[in-house]
């Protein structure tokens, strides 16, 4: 069983706060690490796909880093806005055998005005 | 551009009934996945496929079967539905290590 863990489970911040979440995954046989944004009553949508150790990706106020040697990734949101409220999922893909995509349980972010 | 389409969107079953959920993708993706979403548990992998004619078990396969007879379609079957299978089901597809594209979900209630 692949363990993909995310923390914190939930987070409540004020508009304008910056925040970050953690995703931990197995450090062996790494292939890819994904981040998704999942709004209530919708389907998850991809934010980043990261494949190289040390990768840093950015999309607007959201950025992510990757450390494959120690098995973690951080997602940062700068200056949170109410529209950032969503569940943020990470997903790990192993590089050997059948390449299943395994998700963490997510971090639920609520941004209050 | 349809992407990933799931049918049906909603279904209510009685315990013991059977049904099939259909997932269709038009992106020529090799990999397809079925997940279930339950409160506080994120997305749990039921079964997946790495290509036409191949399927494999995920984390929670019991009570489900799948088939991938055509590359674009991935079917999820419940032979004898149980209340524990009440959930929201998501299908997704990817090409290699690329991002997953999701269907809109199927809300299944087993009474």
Concise account of the structure shown:
Chain A is mainly β and 113 residues long. Chain A has strands at 5-7, 10-14, 19-24, 30-38, 45-50, 56-59, 62-67, 72-77, 86-94, 101-103, 107-112. In chain A, strands 2, 4, 5, 9, 10 and 11 form a six-stranded mixed sheet that branches. Chain A has a five-stranded antiparallel sheet with strand order 1-3-8-7-6, with no helix packed on it.
Structure description:
The complex is a heterodimer of chains A (113) and B (111). Chain A is mainly beta and 113 residues long. Chain A is built from no helices and 11 strands. Chain A is 0% helix and 56% strand. Chain B is built from no helices and 11 strands. In chain B, a hairpin with a 5-residue loop joins strand 7 and strand 8. Chain A binds chain B through residues 1, 31-32, 34, 36, 42-46, 49, 51, 89, 91, 93, 98-106, and chain B through 31, 33, 35, 40-45, 48, 50, 56, 58-59, 90, 92, 94, 96-105.
């Amino acid at each position: 069983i692949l363990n993909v863990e995310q923390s914190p489970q939930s987070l409540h911040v004020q508009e304008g706060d910056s925040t970050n979440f953690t995703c931990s995954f197995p450090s062996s046989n790494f292939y890819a690490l994904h981040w998704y944004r999942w709004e209530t009553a919708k389907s998850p949508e991809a934010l980043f796909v990261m494949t190289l150790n040390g990768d840093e990706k950015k999309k607007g106020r959201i950025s992510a880093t990757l450390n494959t040697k120690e098995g973690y990734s951080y997602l940062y949101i700068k200056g949170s806005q109410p529209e950032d409220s969503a569940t943020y999922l990470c997903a790990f893909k192993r590089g050997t055998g059948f390449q299943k995509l395994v998700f963490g349980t997510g971090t639920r972010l609520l941004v209050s005005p | 551009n349809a992407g990933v389409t799931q049918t049906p969107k909603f279904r209510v079953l009685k315990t013991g009934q059977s049904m099939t959920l259909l997932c269709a993708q038009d992106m020529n993706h090799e990999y397809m996945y079925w997940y279930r979403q339950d409160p506080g548990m994120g997305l749990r992998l039921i079964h997946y496929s790495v290509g036409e004619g191949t399927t494999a078990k995920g984390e929670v396969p019991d009570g489900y079967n799948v088939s991938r007879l055509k590359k674009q379609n991935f079917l999820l079957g419940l032979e004898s539905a149980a209340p524990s299978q009440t959930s929201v089901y998501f299908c997704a597809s990817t090409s290699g290590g690329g991002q997953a594209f999701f269907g809109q979900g199927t809300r299944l209630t087993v009474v």
